[in-house]
Amino acid sequence: MLRQWRMGGAKSGKVFAVDNPSTLVEVAICPEFDEKDTEAAIKRAQEAFVSFRKTQPRVRARLLRRWYELMIENADDLARIITWENGKPLADSKTEVNYAAGFLASNPSCRIITQKEPVGVCGLIIPWNFPAAMITRKAGPALAAGCTVVVKAPAEAPLTALALAELADRAGFPKGVVNIIAALENTVAVGKVLTTHPIVKKVSFTGSTRVGKLLMNQCSSTLKKVSFELGGNAPFIVFEDADLDIALRGLIASKFRISGQTCVCANRILVHRKVYDKFVSMVVDTVEKFEVGDGMAETTTHGPLIHGLAVAKVDDHVKDAVAKGARVVHGGKRLSLGTNFFGITVLADMKPGMKICSEETFGPVAAFFPFDNEQEAIDMANDSEVGLAGYFFSKDLSRCWRVAEALEVGMVGVNVGAISDPVAPFGGVKQSGFGREGSKYGIDEFVVTKMIMTGIE
């Protein structure tokens, strides 16, 4: 009977018996871990991850190789343990040990080839803020892979999708390859069909984290392949050694593009206290020259928000910040131009606990937070459930690499404020989603890998 294990016991002291399924004889006693034990293990894993992620690949390779060697050296014992608790014949257990060890240091005896195949019909759910680019960024790689697409056009801006479909038809795509669904009242129903229909093999969605979670739950009913580009709360860090003119240009590009209505807009602007006042003043001097108005007017630099709910959210974020001690340096109010207009706004003296810290504003509000050292800036930047984009500005090359690796985001802009590019892999981590769009990685989202093995004996 196996009773001695080199492992910590459960905090509760509880154990359970492991029986041989063949003889029904008890072969071991195992600790009965509970939720608290599991949480403790997760904490230990996170603590170890901080340093293990930085170990050299050759160090990890040596560890894996030694683990492999020890498995082979102890193959007979491992095989007996497997048979005792699993019941499979000892010969099968020995085969499994060798198979398991192969994942650590493989030595295949067969020739294996792989081929990429289109995943099938893809449901593409598009946001309103880039009604053309979000279609081509998803449909382009899907069609290149050989998939067909059903595009759910945004209710707020469906006309661009219809125009692109017309152009796809003129380009010669066969009927049924590119399909557009437009809906307003039936948006939820259409989304449910795309996420639950068994013929749809892949869903790609760009939108809020809240909606993404709902769609992911629906996709689970048929285990679809999914890629979600969800909400962000991008930190924008200006260190004391930054070129402030470059940082200013980067901030304007990042923060105020289409009036702040992009998922990679700077949401929290963190500025070192030594240059804080100067940089805020430079930003105010710049935004004072902006012209808010009708997008068709030649003098307009910034247009309206998409609808009244968007304006209400921006207004709420500003009022919340002011109520908790922030200073309105510029703007801060709705404009009389129309119900969907909000003034370009600059807020200073921001603090943790304000809504902007944890929610994506999606509007023309530049919120400034002071910090005193590099680690404080990193901690502030990473204090978010989402992690799409992050930006920072510094002349120190060592700091650039250090901070870029420390930021918990999928994309980092170093001394640059515009990071979207067709050849760049676009996507986030944490609750900003998963999967990548653009670059060579984007097409992988629309293919499945088939393995073909042939014997060589």
SSE inventory with pairings:
Blueprint: E1 15-19, E2 26-31, H1 35-52, H2 57-73, H3 75-86, H4 90-102, E3 110-118, E4 121-125, H5 133-145, E5 148-152, H6 159-171, E6 178-181, H7 187-196, E7 200-206, H8 209-219, E8 225-229, E9 234-238, H9 244-255, E10 266-272, H10 276-287, H11 308-323, E11 327-330, E12 345-348, H12 355-358, E13 365-371, H13 374-382, E14 386-387, E15 389-393, H14 397-406, E16 411-414, E17 429-430, E18 433-434, H15 439-444, E19 447-455
Parallel strand pairs: 4-5, 4-7, 5-6, 7-8, 9-10, 9-15, 10-13, 12-13, 15-16
Antiparallel strand pairs: 1-2, 3-19, 8-18, 11-12, 14-17
Helix pairs in contact: 2-4, 3-4, 7-8, 9-10
